[in-house]
Design brief:
With 391 residues, this protein is α/β, with parallel strands linked by helices. The chain has 19 helices and 13 strands. The protein has helices at 17-35, 54-58, 69-84, 89-92, 97-104, 118-121, 134-137, 142-145, 149-163, 172-182, 198-202, 229-240, 259-267, 285-290, 306-313, 327-330, 342-354, 356-372, 375-390, and strands at 3-8, 39-45, 63-66, 109-112, 126-129, 166-169, 189-191, 216-220, 247-251, 274-276, 294-297, 318-321, 335-337. Helix 12 (229-240) runs parallel beside helix 13 and helix 15 crosses helix 18 (356-372).
């Protein structure tokens, strides 16, 4: 009898790191399917995936099932009830449309590449994938707390981790923290380190479009408050006078409350020195990295972040937040600074801008670290996760 792994996959290309994270998981799952004689992959999705949809093109061997309008409405109702009364989850799960689809197709397990409430409502045989529990440490950010956000996140992680058969995390630090905060058993928790987005490994990277005036610092991040653009701008103002040709290039989708970023640019008199590109398609990102003087990443969330790996791949020195556990990803291949201290960030930027030997050393260390964080190693760890889920 053939086995099936079902996947919930409504992936938004503008979703930043979560989009790339989810695609890497699906690439590994596709490789796992190809290595088995009796395995199918069923992708469940709420929105329509017509012919030509990116996931259909990338994974033509997967089967796709649309959940449908009624299933989507029912799922929304059940999610609200799950947040309001988590104790009712055992009664709600039999009505959850994903469980019915998975049962109809005899799926052995359900994989959730992106963390969400659907995993809480899923039957217990499922794989819960997660990148951070930053809401525990930074509950003050509006994108975390507003709209009942803290309660939603507590239900997702407390109930989702308890409900999951297997758990995927991106660092040993996170493995320890979910055990401490949520009692997640280490025996079912798999550490799978992030790797370069598979798209960049499988594609050529020609220069596309107009090049940015050089030199510039590059920060690719959606304009959430936790991405810490305000401290970055304060630091950039400190170094701008010393480097009159230096610019700052920002990319990423706009978010509620982000007008404060543009107001800060104006108040610091940086309008001519900062360029905001908005959302940038994946195929144009390599050029932005290659031509940058440095990646600067002052985010509060981590400990791992995909832009650091992209900088390593495209020969760009990385200047990043010194977060608990970040050394697991970068070792000594990046300059690290206190994200709460713009002066510390400014000092690190001066170092990389003035010292060509340091810059070259960081680039070489980044390439060496990326070889250690290879897709082959990632795939091997993911195969172990899938093996455990199908036992």
């Amino acid at each position: 009898m053939r086995r099936t792994i079902a996947v919930l996959s409504d992936i938004d290309p503008s979703g930043g790191g979560s989009h790339q994270w989810a695609l890497n998981i699906l690439h590994a799952l596709n490789d796992y399917r190809a290595a088995q004689d009796d395995l199918d992959v069923l992708v469940m999705h709420y929105q329509a995936y017509p012919d030509g949809h990116p996931l259909r093109v990338l994974f033509p061997e997967f089967r796709f099932v649309e959940i449908g309008r009624f299933g989507g409405l029912l799922a929304r109702v059940l999610r609200r009830l799950a947040v309001m009364a988590p104790g009712l989850l055992p009664l709600l799960r039999p009505f959850f449309p994903l469980n019915r689809i998975a049962a109809r197709h005899r799926a052995r397990t359900v994989l959730f590449p992106v963390t969400g409430l659907d995993s809480v409502l899923c039957r217990p045989r499922n794989i819960f994938c997660m990148a951070d529990i930053a809401h525990v440490y930074f509950p003050h950010f509006p994108e975390v707390r507003e709209g009942n956000g803290l309660r939603v996140r507590d239900v997702i992680f407390r109930q989702g981790l308890a409900n999951a058969d297997q758990v995927m995390v991106e660092s040993e630090e996170l493995r320890r923290e979910i055990a401490r905060h949520y009692g997640a058993g280490p025996a079912k928790t798999h550490v799978v380190y992030q790797v370069l987005p598979r798209l960049f490994e499988l594609s050529a990277h020609p220069d596309l479009g107009e090049a940015m005036p050089q030199p510039y610092l590059f920060y690719p991040a959606q304009l959430w408050a936790h991405k810490n653009h305000l401290n970055l701008l304060t630091a950039f103002a400190q170094v701008a006078a010393e480097f009159p040709d230096l610019r700052l290039v920002l990319s990423g989708s706009r978010k509620p409350g982000d007008q404060a970023i543009f107001d800060r640019i104006d108040s610091l008199g940086l309008g001519a020195r900062v360029r905001y590109l908005g959302y940038v398609p994946d195929e144009k990102m390599p050029q932005l990295y290659r031509n940058a003087a440095a990646l600067v990443m002052p985010t509060w969330f981590g400990p791992s972040n995909i832009p650091t790996l992209e900088a390593f791949a495209f020969g760009t020195p990385a200047v990043i937040s010194d977060l608990p556990g970040v050394e697991e990803q970068v070792k000594d291949a990046a300059l690290r600074f206190d994200p709460a201290d713009p002066s510390d960030l400014a000092a690190k930027l001066r170092m990389v801008l003035r010292d060509e030997a340091l810059k070259a050393a960081l680039v070489e260390k980044g390439k060496a670290r990326l070889r250690e964080l290879s897709y082959d190693n990632y795939r091997r760890r993911m195969f172990g996760l899938f093996d455990a889920a199908l036992r």
